[in-house]
Amino acid sequence: DVKVTQSSRYLVKRTGEKVFLECVQDMDHENMFWYRQDPGLGLRLIYFSYDVKMKEKGDIPEGYSVSREKKERFSLILESASTNQTSMYLCASTQLGAGGAQETQYFGPGTRLLVL
Amino acid sequence: QKEVEQDPGPLSVPEGAIVSLNCTYSNSAFQYFMWYRQYSRKGPELLMYTYSSGNKEDGRFTAQVDKSSKYISLFIRDSQPSDSATYLCAMMEYGNKLVFGAGTILRVKS
Question: What is the pLDDT along chain A (116 residues), one digit of tens a residue?
Fold first, then answer.
């Protein structure tokens, strides 16, 4: 079974702090994603990566950055946390399917971040 | 207007009922359609995957896609309390990223 793990289930940080969220997958997937999930808004894509050292902006990249130094690991960085970044953060990975289509995304358990 | 619309619920049904969950979308280029189930305090997990139009059945679950109406459905037969969760529809164009609905909260009462 694919396993996607996230470094923390719950985090409490103060405004202005730098926050690191780590995600690791064990299935050699090429693609990795960071989403945030908020009530009524569903999942919104922050950043994604198709390969090591490659990153692409998603729909809401402002205030975030990412790092992918190894294939299995994808980190989300909040440079200076703000209260509007309080949310559930979900990491996902997927392998390119036949024909290059991105298919099943496997999600981690999520990190609930509270910024005070 | 959102690309994918999904009623957030909550939808409450008695055990054994047939549940119908739905999403509408505006992008006619979507080809891949998925339903994810998310239990409280967990990440979403894939429930059903359909390519293009038609029906797909897996046990008590049936996914239906009507591309002409830009409408997808998930039916759950003989619903159980363990089906209580948030159900997210998701869809994508070939080679593009997934777009999610906001999710529908389902509560099945015993």
Answer: 668 999 999 999 999 999 999 999 998 888 899 999 998 888 999 999 988 999 999 999 999 999 999 999 999 999 999 999 999 999 999 876 544 445 678 899 999 999 99
Specify whether the CB–CB gap between A89 and A113 falls below 8 A.
yes
Asked whether the beta carbons of A26 and A108 are under 8 A apart, the reply is no
| Closest Cβ opposite residue A104 in set B6, B43, B49 | B49
8 Å CB contact between B48 and B37: no
For residue B42, which residues of chain A lie inside 8 Å, CB to CB? 109-110
Selected for mutation to probe chain B from A29, A105, A107, A112 (highest B CB count within 10 Å) is A105
CA B21 to chain centre: 6
Which of helix, strand or coil describes residue A13?
A: strand
